[in-house]
Amino acid sequence: MAIRDDFEVVAGQVRLALQRFALTILVLLAFAAMLIGKADTVLVENARVLALDLASPALEAIARPVSVANRTIADLKEFATLREENARLREENARLLAWQTAARRLENENTRLRELAQFREGPEASFITARIVGDSVSAYVRGALINVGRQAGVTPGQAVVTGEGLAGRIAEVGDHSARVLFVTDVNSRLPVQVERTRERAILAGDNSQLMRLTLAQTLQGVQRGDRIVTSGHGGSFPVGIPVGEVVQTESGSVKVRPFADFSRLEFVRVVDYGVTGLVGGGTPAATSGATPKGR
């Protein structure tokens, strides 16, 4: 018992000494490690390499399941994405098949109607590309001068179109040039129809950026956003050439904005549809008093 008591007393004194001098001992140990590192870098490097060699298998064993889990999660996400894409493609394919079926049905109906009516195709349209070499835009005239004329096959009444739609028609022709009367000119009168309702009307210019839709049977059915196309009446132009879009229907007045951007015209196409009529034949005489000069 006396020996045990003496041992406990000694252990308590040692523990107390360690608690008092723990910080000092740690500082000395750190300083000693620094001295060893400075004195023998090879020994420290070998110890570090040995520690890495011992830790690498453990780290690899831990990282392998994590990598497998990440790969599995990525595969599941890709599988879900592929399922959604597959469903979308199935829906799109179904819509395309429906359109194909409708197109074939309409083609067959069209063929039968042509045979029934003994329909004959009109002459194929031909065109000449021309450059705008002068404009005739003023308070009284909306037109332009192009660099092709009678020798290139241009004749009065032919349509002048851009990539967006109808810009106007040929009003006067020289040997090497021609004057274009824009659809916004006050002298322009064009038989058109509302593409959505097939209602016929006359589209008149008033020398502004918008045109006026007149002589329609009823203007109540016309809505903003309706497309206006040529009606083919009067033998002027064929049916369906886009002209403009309805932008105003207030106060009983329907205003149409042309598709063609006249402020940026550089090249146009003079198109011969093989038809002549009221628009091509009667207007030059009516507009001869306001012939503009290109500049």
Structure characterization notes:
- It is a single chain.
- Helix content is 42%, strand content 23%.
- A hairpin with a 4-residue loop joins strand 3 and strand 4.
- The chain has 3 helices and 12 strands, in the order H-H-E-E-E-E-E-E-E-E-E-E-E-E-H.
- With 295 residues, the chain is an alpha+beta fold.
- A 6-stranded antiparallel barrel has the order 1-2-5-4-3-12. It has a 6-stranded antiparallel barrel with strand order 6-7-8-11-10-9.
List the helices and strands and how they pair.
Layout: H1 2-39, H2 41-117, E1 126-135, E2 143-146, E3 159-161, E4 166-173, E5 178-182, E6 189-194, E7 200-205, E8 211-214, E9 227-230, E10 242-248, E11 254-258, E12 267-272, H3 278-287
Antiparallel strand pairs: 1-2, 1-12, 2-5, 3-4, 3-12, 4-5, 6-7, 6-9, 7-8, 8-11, 9-10, 10-11
Helix pairs in contact: 1-2
- Number of discrete helical segments: 3
Characterize the largest beta sheet: strand count, sense, and whether it forms a barrel.
6 strands, antiparallel, barrel
* SSE string, helices as H and strands as E: HHEEEEEEEEEEEEH
Structural class: alpha+beta
Residue share in β-strands: 15-25%
Q: Rg from C-alpha positions?
A: 44 Å
Average pLDDT number: 78
| Unreliable segments of 5+ consecutive residues | 280-295
Helix content: 40-55%
Strand element count: 12
Looking across the biggest beta sheet, what order are the strands in?
Answer: 1-2-5-4-3-12
The N- to C-terminal Cα distance equals: 128 Å
**Inertia-based shape:** elongated
Can I get a quick summary?
The protein is an alpha+beta fold and 295 residues long. 42% of the residues lie in helices and 23% in strands.
